[in-house]
Amino acid sequence: MKKEILVSVYCLAYNHEKYIRQTLEGFVNQKTNFKYEVFVHDDASTDNTSGIIKEYARKFPDIIIPILQKENQYSKGISISKTIIFPKMHGKYVAVCEGDDYWIDNEKLQIQVDFLEKNPNYVACVHNSNIYNCITNKTKKMYKVKQDYDIDFYDVIEEGSGSYQTSSLLYRKEAMEKRPTFFEDIAPIGDWPTAINLSLKGKIRFINKTMSVYRIFSTGSWTYNNNSNITQHNKKVINFLNSVNKYTKYKYEEKIRQTILRHNYVMNEALGNYIELQNEKYKHIWADKPLLFKIKRYIKRQKIYCLINNRKD
């Protein structure tokens, strides 16, 4: 029976009691002409996330496969998908959806599998998504495009993890089975490295059909907690990009160098190093910032200058 499974889905959840039921509904309601499995990993949640996962595993034992941790793996720096979930997968294709996001099209998997089956030169396909703001309760489309298009390495480096939404991703499992060890060093930050690896293996198709929802500012999410770890995150990303540059034999050096510069800018901004940000090398980054952003940063910078010079004006 396991050999008949065409798609393996994995879902990472932590304290997603408010959202996980809607996520699981998106999984079990898929209409396909093939078998698929869904691994739902709960990372020792302190709420009732694991209880809801167990409920769906009982109702849909042929689809939902629970992996319930007693100790938090993320805090240990473990790559959950590679170390815990991937060895259990049986599918030719892999789909992803975090425990606070969800699918809104019951034919999502079928549409994406049909495309990759017909187009062996593509390594993955993604699609449009809605963004739901948990603070304002407002929804908007993530990408305002009019047609399908291809995503390549330059797009992924330029846009980072924003070149597509993770809940839209379906890729060939074999594309992730052999990759350099430095891809694991950036764990548990996995979205962007995955996109870079896939873009180096082949083409990625963007399907302009909205089939998932990405929640921002949900409890426990990166967008909710990012102020506390921007510096650490950017240091890891910069080291990772230097490794990518070497791995690709400096084929994309100019684009990677520009990306590293942007991450250095963000890191210095988070640290309040506004004098350093006046460096000529950051001039073009500052020029692209919105006017309101510039005004706020100017006011903050002036306050810092006053403190440095021991003045109150």
What spatial form do the alpha-carbon principal axes imply?
globular
Termini separation: 74 Å
Indicate the structural class: alpha/beta
Give helix % range.
Answer: 25-40%
Number of helices: 12
* pLDDT averaged over residues: 87
Taken in chain order, the helices and strands follow as EHEHEHEEHEEEHEHHEHHHHH
User: What ranges have pLDDT less than 50 throughout 5 or more consecutive residues?
Assistant: 222-227
Major sheet summary line: 10 strands, mixed
How many beta-strand elements? 10
Radius of gyration: 21 Å
Identify the notable features of this structure and list them briefly:
alpha/beta; single chain; globular; 12 helices; 10 strands; ten-stranded mixed beta sheet; 20% strand; 313 residues
Give a structural overview.
The protein is of the alpha/beta class. It is built from twelve helices and ten strands. The protein has helices at residues 20-28, 49-59, 80-85, 108-118, 153-159, 182-185, 191-201, 222-225, 230-247, 253-271, 283-287, 291-308; strands at residues 5-13, 35-42, 64-68, 93-96, 102-103, 122-133, 138-141, 149-151, 170-172, 203-216. Strands 1, 2, 3, 4, 5, 6, 7, 8, 9 and 10 form a ten-stranded mixed β-sheet that branches. Strand 1 (5-13), helix 1 and strand 2 (35-42) form a beta-alpha-beta unit.
